[in-house]
Amino acid sequence: MPSHSFRVAAALVLAASVATSQALTPPPAPYENPLTAAKAVLGKALYWDEQLSSDNTMACGSCHRPGAGGADPRIGRHPGPDALFHTADDRLGSPGIVLSRPGGAYTPSPLFALNPQVTGRISPTNVGAAYFSTLRWDGRATETFVDPQTGLLRIMFGGALESHAAGPPVNDGEMAFAARTWSDIAQKVARVQPLALATSLPPDLAQALASGPDYGELMRRAFGDRRVDSTRIIYALASYQRTLVPDRTPWDRFVLGDPTALTPSQQNGLALFTGAAGCARCHTPPLFSDGTFRNLGLRPVGEDLGWQLATLDPTDRGKFKMPTPRGRGAGALRSTADVGRARTARLWGSARRQRRDRAPHAARGPAAGRQPGVPHRHRRRARRRSRGAGLRVRARSAGPVPRPAADPRRARPPADPRADGAERQRRGQRPRDARAPDPRRPRAARCSAPSPGDRARRGCARRRRRHVGRGRRDSLTDTRMKTLPLALLLTSSLVAQTTVASVDDPVSPGVLGDARLSLDEAIRLVNGQLTVAQLSAAEAMRLMGTGPLTAIEIDATTTPMIVLQQALTPLDGPSAGVAVELRGMQGRPMIHATGLAYALRIRTNTAIVMDLMLVDGDAGVLVDDVVNMTLDEMVMLHGLELTGQTQAGLRLSATGPMADTPVMLMHSELHQQVIGVEIDDHSAGGAVMFEAEHCHFDDVQLGVDLFSDASGSMTMCRLFRCVFMNGAQLLKVRRGATNDQRIMAMLVGGDFTTTGDTVDAQGTAVIETAIHVHHSLIHPAPGRRAFLVGPQDARIDFHLSENVVWGDVDVTEGRLNRRLWCWNNLFRDGVFAVTNAGTTTNFRWNRFENCTVRARPANTSRMLHVSSEFDGCTIDGQATLGAVELENCYATSSTTTGNVAIRNPAPSRWLGTTWASTESPSIGTAVDLTMDLPLGMLGVWQVGFTDPRVVLTEEPWRFYAHRSFGVLLHGVYALRSTLRLPVPNDPNLVGLELYCTAITGPILGQTHVPAFSLPRGVYLSIRN
């Protein structure tokens, strides 16, 4: 019988001879798009430029990164076909951008809210993609390329890269706002500076951009003239990707005759790869992929149709393209925790198992043949479930699960590689180092970047990814209002191995030692206060898997209710910075805390609590004693229903030395409480931050009670897209006697209806109190105040923009105020009264209907209204030292008394000196807008109707985009553009906002005009 070494040598000779005849040659390029150096450099600049996306946050290289072999090292969770998170069909995909309306304004996604959307699949590698005739997991990118802008057939054969490049820039989940076209992209590329957001450039790009060319100049170098269109952008992107050729791997050198390129163990692996294991049947050299589509049978085909989406053939359902592992070097794995996280397939599982009878992972069942090191395109880990499990405890892969005391007779001696190899040889197994050669390293010979360092460092790479990017800002999603994305928080806890403990005890605390596991016992396990060794044998048998216990799950189908007999153990977590989780599954299980101080207490600095209903008790959730937090740590409360608490639904108590302390309440409901959220800040040297997003307050007497007696940097409360109804007051801000910390309260995109004063904010002369309200509906009861802000000597930062406000606005400013701003608001049926002893107010583009606008007798600074409208109002200066001044305002059916100065009255309802129009139109009519611009400037109209009353619907802004590019020479020094705008026949329409931005272009011989933005524009009330 031939020896083992002889068999290996024979296999290597065969492998080398086959591979040599199929050596990796330069990839072909289609006749219509030949590869040139100038075109590749242009494509490389476009590939790494975040400005190719609509909001300037995503580049092609964001999802296809050289350090990950051209794939995506990031991770995000997609809810799958059922649109429900944390169910069996969830997928892990690639994060994209925040959903945006046409034009770029952000809007909540039904699945991801204002978080970055996640695709349904992980981005595949693009290294070596030039060799394949079809691309994407489902083969939708074929070699026939049709220009998406003109619809013309551009490439008949060999254009798969071009077909693929045409998709992501106009996909509203990956890089684009809704309804974005390639015409929009071409116009943007023509006016931006290449790689303006990059912080560093590789040498070839630095040389190409040394003279400061725009994309028009780069187009001239590549194609002969400066025209920028979709075909050229796509051709350049495809040309650059044809340079990503990984042909310098050890495998390539070995098959080309270098016997030292592979170690002996790798040569053994190559023999196994091409022989007994059968890996090469599908991962065929030299590409290590045969380019076919296979159904491995790992998941139900209904979850993702795969290749059937391209072929429409039912027999192709569930088939996906055979991936290639080329291009991903083993050195890219930062730690053993990365095993199983690569976005390109790995072959190690097959080499370890040495399957001789068939190809690895052949389809033979829903999860048959799955190996730990072989990731799937959806990268979802199957969760082991015990039938009838009610409460489950999950674990992370950071360490082993505590076990009962081990039998010393079973203790293993220190590992000896030689002894291990001898033992495996005695069993007839290969040594552990008999691995398949890694065809993925080092980097490619002609590849100008799959090496991690040879790339343009993107702008977003140097900072934490924000919720929203650099798209056109609106008041709902100001990029300065930084929030932490929920999706990223959740996925960070979902990529580890799991331990499941099934229990059937609906009552907590339970009896330690019986066969049931109570909620209190589970919390003590997560805290590290209870070990597995202390559980009964029946309980311990329910624990499976590896990793420390850090999460608890309650299945509402088997444990719908937990009645607390005594207070639960506080959720502390095993140590600072280790995230712990408590969540409901299959609905919201109820936890009753009647007669107790709280239903749940959190004392860890990193916790996630989701999908629970907490009933009764003094407080639903108590968050306290949380110290030394950073912005990377937070308490996340999501999907809670807090009902019937006698004091507060959520109580945040901050004491002692604290750093940044973020607590977020998201997509939750609060009912029947005296106080919805109580914030009691007595911290020192830190910042306490509370944020509620998409929360509903119903029958809550006081929505948020914010009390600060702290000495640090800031106490902050932010409410995004919340609803308050059937309650007395939304927000009350109070300060303690020793408080010297800034307070900021921000309300954005809300609908607030109260029976009393909506916002009552108490300031101080010592330090600033900031009240910011944007794009909200404020509706107190008749005769009550929408805002009460003071007292006399308070230092107030009061900012209202794009709100509809009923009722009184009573603001008392002190000498130390920073600003008093009201822009683009509609005030109705109230008294707008200001006592200001500080700087001049900034009231612009507001409309007052049936209001009294008054400066109180103590007012000493002028109250200046600019470009505003007054309809049926009384404007009363009360003969104060600081007069009420109207600059370029329009008043009808209004009277003035006292010290009121009127300068340059507007001739019509349209606002601003550079605008002209007809009178305020009615529903169904039209309005003409005229814009004057300096010579050589092309104006682009962007007009949108907004209705604050519908901000909480699925489509929060009713948006109708109108653009006009017609220009006329007006005199000698100006261009005039006129747009006729029809007013939609929509009874819900309240106001109109007008935006104007200037774009660059060769107008009247000018080749470059710096871009600028005119003021935010006007707010026009539309009459029904």
Question: How would you describe the overall organization of this protein?
Answer:
The chain is of the alpha/beta class. The protein has four domains: 4-24 and 248-371, Cytochrome Bc1 Complex, Chain D, domain 2 (Orthogonal Bundle); 37-245 and 449-466, Cytochrome Bc1 Complex, Chain D, domain 2, CATH 1.10.760.10; 570-903; 915-1021, Immunoglobulin-like. Helices cover 13% and strands 27% of the residues. The chain has 16 helices and 55 strands. It has a 26-stranded parallel beta sheet that branches. A 16-stranded mixed beta sheet has the order 7-9-11-14-17-20-22-24-27-30-33-36-39-42-45-48, with helices on one face. It has a four-stranded antiparallel beta sheet with strand order 49-50-53-52, with no helix packed on it. It is globular, with a radius of gyration of 33 Å. Residues 1-21, 329-453, 460-515, 910-985 and 987-1024 have low confidence and may be disordered.
SSE map:
Blueprint: H1 4-21, H2 37-47, H3 60-63, E1 76-78, E2 91-93, E3 145-146, E4 153-155, H4 160-165, H5 182-191, H6 203-208, H7 215-223, H8 230-241, H9 250-255, H10 264-274, E5 293-294, H11 308-311, E6 320-321, H12 348-353, E7 391-395, H13 417-426, H14 486-491, E8 507-508, H15 519-527, H16 537-540, E9 549-555, E10 561-564, E11 580-585, E12 590-592, E13 598-602, E14 607-610, E15 613-615, E16 619-624, E17 635-638, E18 641-643, E19 648-657, E20 660-666, E21 669-684, E22 687-693, E23 696-708, E24 714-720, E25 723-727, E26 729-735, E27 742-748, E28 751-754, E29 759-762, E30 769-774, E31 777-779, E32 785-790, E33 796-801, E34 804-806, E35 808-812, E36 819-823, E37 826-828, E38 831-835, E39 842-844, E40 847-849, E41 852-855, E42 863-866, E43 869-871, E44 874-876, E45 884-887, E46 890-892, E47 895-897, E48 900-903, E49 915-916, E50 926-934, E51 938-946, E52 968-970, E53 974-982, E54 991-999, E55 1019-1021
Parallel strand pairs: 8-10, 9-11, 10-12, 11-14, 12-15, 13-16, 14-17, 15-18, 16-19, 17-20, 18-21, 19-21, 20-22, 21-23, 22-24, 23-25, 23-26, 24-27, 25-28, 26-29, 27-30, 28-31, 29-32, 30-33, 31-34, 32-35, 33-36, 34-37, 35-38, 36-39, 37-40, 38-41, 39-42, 40-43, 41-44, 42-45, 43-46, 44-47, 45-48
Antiparallel strand pairs: 1-2, 3-4, 5-6, 7-9, 49-50, 50-53, 51-54, 52-53, 54-55
Helix pairs in contact: 1-10, 2-7, 2-8
